[in-house]
Write a structure and sequence with these properties.
Blueprint (H helix, E strand, L loop, with lengths): L14 E3 L5 H9 L7 E9 L1 H13 L7 H15 L5 E4 L2 E5 L4 E6 L8 E6 L7 H16 L7 H10 L3 H17 L4 H4 L8 E5 L20 E14 L5 E14 L5 H16 L22
Parallel strand pairs: 5-7, 7-8
Antiparallel strand pairs: 1-4, 2-9, 3-4, 5-6, 8-9
Helix pairs in contact: 3-4, 3-8
Length: 300
Amino acid sequence: MSETYKRKRGDRRDGRWCKDVPGLQVVMANLLPNRTDCECYLADKIDATELVKYLEKKNAEHPEYKTTVFHALVTAAARMVRERPKMNRFIQGRRFYERFEISLSFVVKRRFADNAEESLMVLVPKDEDTLDSISRKIVGEVRETRKSESATGGIDETINKFAALPRPILMFAVRVIRWLDFWGVNPKALTEGDPNYTTMFFTNLGSIRCPSVYHHLNNYGTNSCMVAVGTLHKEELVMPDGHKEIRDVIDYGATLDERIADGFYFARSLKLVKYVFAHPELLDQPLGEPSGFDYETNKI
C-alpha cells in the first residue's frame, strides 16, 4: 500500500476499509461471518532444485550466515504479497480491509525438547529487503529468542499474564477482547507481535523433520493465510517434456480464507511463488522491484 495513503473514516489501525469488493464476497462475509467456516485448503509441493543449488553457492560464499529454504520461502511469500495485494486482505467485523504493511509470523521453539517453551515472532519486510536481509533478521531474532528459557516480554508475556487470571475473570476478559476485535479497537499492546494479526502465519515443520499438515485458521484476529512447511526431500517428478527426474521437493499445506479473493487470484499468486523458486536470483532483488513475471505465458 502506498505510504502516502491518508487514513479515512472506517479504516482500522492496521488496515484500510476496502469498498471495491464484489457483491458476492460481501454477502459471503455476512452469510459466513466466521473465518473457520470459509477455509480453503491446499496441499501441494514446490520444485526446489534450482533454489537448493542457489543456496549452496550462497552459503559457501558466506558461511557465517546459513540461508535456508525456509528463509527463501518467507522471502518469496513477501514478494508475492507485495505484488498481489489482495493476499494482504482480511475480514473482521464483516468488513473487508487491506493491511498497511506486510507481516509474516512464525513460532520459534526455544529448545528442541518436549517441555521447552515456544515464542512468537513477527517479521515486517520492507521494500528494500532481499533474501540476505530477511535471512539475517530471522537468524538474529531466533538466536536472541533461544538465549532465554522463557518469555522475556512482548506478546508472550502478555499471554502469560492473561493465563494467570482466575477462570471467571479470564472468560470475561476474553469476551471483551473479542468485542473490541470485532470493531477493530483492540489495544495495540494486545495485537502487536501476535501472529493472529499478521498477513501470513508459517509453521516450519521441516525444522523438526515433520511433513506438512492441515492447520486451521482462527476466528480471532485478522490472519487470512496459514502455511505449514514440510521437509525438503528427493522425489521423482515428471518434467515439462515428459521425462522423469529426481528433484529436490518441499511439501506444504496452505489454508486460506476464501472470502478475500477468488480461486483464480489465489492460483496466480501461487504461480508467482513457484516462479521465484525456479528463478532464485529474483530473491536478490529488493521486494519493491517488480519480478517481471508474466502471468499469461508462464505455465508452472
